[in-house]
Amino acid sequence: MNGIFEAVKQAALVHKAGGGTGFSFSRLRPEGSQVKTTQGVASGPCSFIRVFDTATDVTKQGGTRRGANMGVLRVDHPDIEKFISLKEKDGFLSNFNISVAITDEFMEAVAADGDFTLRFDGKAYKTVRARQLWQSIINHAWANGEPGLLFIDTANKANPTPHVGEFEASNPCGEQFLLPHEACVLGSVNLAKMVPNGQVNYD
Fold it and tell me: Most buried among 2, 54, 63, 160, by the most CB within 10 A?
């Protein structure tokens, strides 16, 4: 809980300054699993996304607009079926884009028309038909554009700093994979102003 709400606080500060944030919710235990410290049950990642969405809603960027978020869940997380359908209702999670982190293992199961195991922390929770899960992603994306796909294994194969950490999520619109607390600058440079008379002016 400390980690979750510390992340909410940090996100609010980023939004206040005019930025956006991307989150992987894959580390959160599945809905209904036991919380040993309190003997309670976990709410699951889909519930906590709503907390981040509400915090974004009330944090205006410079008093004019709300921040943007990317919410990511691994395709092998036990709550993935619920996650895929999160944005069926128009206006729900209006401050989030959501994307499924697709693994090579899942795509191989889709190609082979095989089974696929949903698991968390080394424990298997459920086995599904890979193509059925894939079709659900397609149907929801066709209906309203979400969820998107992040090919997480492919991204990590091109990770220039694997010794620092693995990619788990991207920035809010999916242009760039980033490690925790890394930032992207989506600025632009007008190269035409640096090439007078067909020659690059390096100075």
Answer: 54
User: Model confidence over 137-146: pLDDT tens digits?
Assistant: 999 999 999 9
Sign of the C-alpha dihedral computed for residues 161, 24, 128 and 134 taken in this order: negative
Instruction: Based on the residue annotation, tell me whether 173 is a catalytic residue of this protein.
Output: yes
- Cβ neighbours for 80, distance < 8 A, ≥ 6 positions apart: 73, 74, 100, 118, 133
Between the alpha carbon of residue 51 and those of residues 14, 136, 176, 185, the distances in Å are 16, 25, 24, 26
* Alpha helices (H) in the chain, listed in sequence order: 2-16, 45-58, 80-84, 104-111, 130-144, 152-157
Is pTM beyond 0.85? Reply is yes
Instruction: Exactly one of 6, 88, 108, 175 is catalytic; name it.
Output: 175
Is 175 marked active-site?
A: yes
Q: Which residues pair with 124 in a beta bridge?
A: 119
Cα–Cα distance between 83 and 74 in angstroms, integer? 10
Q: Residue 140 and residue 193: Cα distance in Å, rounded?
A: 44
